[in-house]
Amino acid sequence: MWGVVTTVLGTAHTAAAWRLNDQTAQVDISAVAGTVLSSAAVGSVIQRTGVAATALTLSTSAAGRVTDTTAVKLQLFSPFTLVKKLNATTQIEYVYATTETPTTGAIDFFVKWLPLSSDGDLAAV
Question: What does the domain layout of the chain look like in residue ranges?
Fold first, then answer.
């Protein structure tokens, strides 16, 4: 999973993270303390680069940038498995904190998805 900033984010866009929500419990996909994305420029990339206890990585487009595995010490776009709750709507959610309500900006999210079962559907909501 990754996101690309398409409109500059607000100046108070903090604690950015992904989680799995099965409508009863929320399971961290990345560290809940999150990543500061305040004022992230258009073209900046947000990606998961480690285990669930690891914060998301921001590769800002404010200048040319190379992010590789030696820099983050983990695999870029690290693979992981999500399991949906039986007979429940299970969602992948992007969450963040802000003191600007509503905050400004926009992020397009992408995922490379390999279903592990016949009902392993993924739909944007």
Answer: 2-110
